[in-house]
Amino acid sequence: MELVGDKEQEAILDSLQEWFEENPKFPNKIDRVLLTRFFFCMHKDEEKTKKLLETNYTIRLANPYIFTKRDPTDQDSKNTIAIADIVPLPGLTKENYRIVVHRLTNPDANLMHHAEDTKTYIMLNDCRFSLPDAIVDGAPVLSAGDVHISDMSCHSMAHMRRMSLRILRTMLKFVQEAYPVRIKAIHMVNCPSYMNNILAFLRPFVSKRVFELMHFHTSGIESLYEFIPQDMLPEEYGGTAGKLEDFKAQFLEKVMEKRDYLMDPQYWELEKA
């Protein structure tokens, strides 16, 4: 979907932006690309877009310890980025979906710090949601949804035990009820033998709808290719698109370019007089 639409669409977005920025329940500003994502996510329904914005920012403002006061150059962010990959891949699928890889890169559960890691995860997504998903015929476009690849090779029950139930509940509620992007599929790869135990731990917090989006690849990576073309996958997953580490480095460059935006309280905190 093209980021900049016709006059009627832009007029609706102007109205939504004015409604948001004059509403005492919201921060002073909202990024235009992010606002457009909310609008597209709700199939361009203005009232549903308002409700999704209200849900999103109600959760944000009620949980500032994971949604505000972040900095991609601080040590907490660096620690998370060193042990985890949250990497959007280039291009869109034939269905116009964006592929995003999530994985731990170090199996040591003692390196996990749930609050700080969650804050960094949200920050990285906030950066991505303020950027176009692709350039098609010279025009910036947004995807019709996300396809997530979750690599479980470094996960263990020790990681589950280090999680704060409060943070887990908040984060999963945010993703399931307030995300400005529709998640179309979740592909779990390199699943460990105790995957059922991990799912049992998560089940109270995950909706039936989200569980129905999950695909478990338990007998090798090849079954993933039935859903995602190899030419869109990084080399680490048997693809030909390039190296995941290079895509991560490119994305982190964009995060640093957006540092002022990510740290600006006018976009994320309630500062109205």
From TrEMBL:
GO terms for cellular component: membrane. It holds the Pfam family CRAL_TRIO. It comes from Musca domestica (House fly). GO terms for molecular function: phosphatidylinositol bisphosphate binding. This is CRAL/TRIO domain protein. Residues 74-245 form the CRAL-TRIO domain. PROSITE patterns: CRAL_TRIO.
